[in-house]
TrEMBL record:
Source taxonomy: Eukaryota, Viridiplantae, Streptophyta, Embryophyta, Tracheophyta
Assigned protein family: Belongs to the ATPase g subunit family.
Superkingdom field: Eukaryota
Cellular component, GO annotation: mitochondrial membrane; proton-transporting ATP synthase complex
Key word Repeat present: no
Protein's name in the database: Mitochondrial ATP synthase subunit G protein
Keyword hit for Flavoprotein: no
GO biological process: proton motive force-driven ATP synthesis
Membrane-spanning residues: none
Length: 122
């Protein structure tokens, strides 16, 4: 166990040295590449304005999302009505989608329990 701790400390030290050497340059490069998204001057008022713009823009998009949801639901209803004509490929895609949703649910449950598989802290 002690050797694992020394190994972990060594890796952490290497990562720390890498970040101190290359972190500043990466930060500057990242800001330079994305300067079109930076608001100047960076004031509290500007941040509040952008926050409100994001909130109300998302709020304004709800009717469009609502309409899209009902269109999607109608297409699923049509597929269900014509399920006799359903191809194997379509059924396979639907099964994979359901399996993926279940897997994300399970992953969320595991994360929610603090990455324990039993739900108990040992």
């Amino acid at each position: 166990m002690a050797s694992k701790l020394v190994q972990l400390q060594s890796k952490a030290t290497q990562a720390s040295h890498f970040l101190t050497k290359h972190g500043g340059a990466y930060y500057k490069q990242l800001l330079e590449q994305n300067k079109q998204y930076i608001q100047d001057p960076p004031t509290v008022e500007k941040c509040n304005l952008l926050s409100k713009q994001l909130f109300y823009t998302r709020l304004a998009s709800i009717p469009g999302r609502y309409e899209s949801f009902w269109k999607e639901l109608d297409s699923v209803k049509q597929l269900w009505k014509n399920r006799n004509e359903l191809r194997v490929e379509d059924a396979g895609i639907a099964a994979l989608f359901g399996l993926e949703c279940f897997a994300w649910y399970c992953a969320g449950e595991i994360v929610g329990r603090g990455f324990t598989f039993t739900g108990y802290y040992v």
